[in-house]
Amino acid sequence: MDIAIYKSGITALIISIICTPLLIFISRKKGFYATIDHRSSHDTSVPNTGGIILCFSVLVPVILYSDYPNQENFSLLVSAFAVLLITGIIDDFNPIPVSYKFLGQFIPAIVIVTSIDEQDLVIPFVYEYIQFPFFFNYLFWILFVVMTINAFNLIDGIDGLAIGLGIIGGLFYFSSFYQFDDLNLLIFSIALCTGLLGLLYFNLSKRNKIFLGDTGSLLIGGLLVFFALNFISTSGRPGASSSFFMVMGSLLIPMFDMIRLTIVRSSKKVSPFRADREHIHHIVLDLLKGNHVLTSILILISQLTVIYIFTMLSVLKSTYLIAILSMAFVAYYALVELLRKRRGPGG
After folding, report:
1. Residue 237: which of 127, 114, 112 has the closest Cα?
2. Can you tell me the distance from the alpha carbon of 73 to that of 112, in angstroms, rounded to the nearest whole number?
3. Which of 30, 218, 231, 252 gives 88 a disulfide partner, CB atoms 3.0 to 4.6 angstroms apart?
4. Which of 277, 300, 181, 271 is nearest to 234 (CA)?
């Protein structure tokens, strides 16, 4: 393995471990805390600036050890992730309307999608039967990027969960890029994993706790979906459906939970963006009497299991993959509804 990969992982970890306590100190001095409301799973003031550390933990190794800075679209990609970062920072300290937040996600989504070879941007499962104009292909993937970013933003509700999902997703893509021998993406993905690993320690700490904030969750979603599109592109067009199936496996719990809540809230004629305590992590947390660590561990083990199963099944024909995805969502929906009923109304 290239020495640059080791350097990237260690550099990201060091930045995360050394800089986080300093940022916690500054955040406490300036009053940069997460808002406590009816949805909160915490009852004390905690700094919500962890996403800023994550940004530098990933960016510095990429600049130092990869060839990305020499590529034409690097400045554009950095600008796209900077928009996500700024959107998150603004929303963390002064919540913004949903329309503005979506704008701060669509702009990076367009940049991320256009950074991929248009020949690889086909609509999975459908392209084998219908050839859509490229405009529809771009639209599909832009919406997919926005959905993924939002899914991670919504799943960040308890200690260790979003960070753990980010590490698992990062490791999945790291192992995939290792098979493809893509050094730049290996550096990118390992920096995300070790940067998050350093933040995980402080996120679970009782004395020096820090939250990712919207800044961090938006960034994790953006980076993972960037890896996802590169994974599909590197896999090649003939494998688009199986590659997309594996990508959905790597994102399953955040994506399925967001889709489930959209259906539930819409059926009740409530805005899909209305905040409540009906996410999978809230339900499991209440059933486990507020045990954050155990709740996160159970959900993370479930996500790992899904990745393994989906990877094994990805060799099947696309018609079977569509059926498996559909059945997986139905099973997820039914399971969460069963758990919700056992919890009782309102938690």
Report:
1. 127
2. 10
3. 218
4. 181
Handedness of CA 9, 13, 16, 18 (dihedral sign): negative
Distance CA 187, CA 324 (A): 33
Full residue range of the structural domain in which residue 57 is found: 3-343
Selection from 229, 113, 219 nearest residue 176 by Cα = 229
Strand-pairing partners, residue 47, are: 33
Q: What is the pTM assigned to this prediction?
A: 0.93
pLDDT digits (tens, 9 = 90+) for 112-152: 999 888 777 888 888 777 777 888 889 999 999 999 999 99
d(CA 218, CA 51): 9
List C-alpha distances in Å: 123 to 49, 203, 296, 329: 36, 38, 33, 19
Decide: residue 181, CB within 10 A, 0-12 exposed, 13-18 middle, 19+ buried: exposed
Residues 298 and 236: their CA atoms lie apart, in Å, by 34
Q: If 0-12 CB within 10 Å is exposed, 13-18 middle and 19+ buried, where does residue 102 land?
A: middle
Res. 283: pLDDT tops 80 = yes
Distance CA 282, CA 161 (A): 11
Measured in Å, how far apart are the chain's first and last C-alpha atoms?
48
Closest CA to 247 of 261, 233, 262: 233
Alpha-carbon separation of residue 173 from 45, 169, 230 (angstroms): 35, 6, 9
As a whole number of angstroms, the distance between CA 18 and CA 310 comes to: 37
Is the model's pLDDT at 347 over the cut of 60?
no
Of the chain, the percentage scoring pLDDT greater than 90 comes to 70
